[in-house]
Amino acid sequence: MVGPFFILRLIKILEKIKEHVDNEKTEKLTNEIGFLSNMRIYVEEALLSEFYLDKCYDSFLHSSNRGFLTLVSEEYFDFGIELMKKVPSLLTASC
Question: Quick one: which of 34, 35, 60, 92 is 20 to 30 A from 71 by CA?
């Protein structure tokens, strides 16, 4: 299964290829691709981080990894947790 980071990043890369010339749009796409690239960490990298193994990589993720799993980078992990807490409450409140 391909994750949302991979798909969104791929879409941005394909958009950039279609542009054919460097302009403001390609610069913006380059920045977005870089941002999305920095948001991810591969399992091989996560296994080298004691913090990541301790706080971010639970046994379920570890057992479900069949290879090529992309994880949220340490720098964005706290933000992701907060986002996951707020989204359900905002969706419930709007219904």
Answer: 92
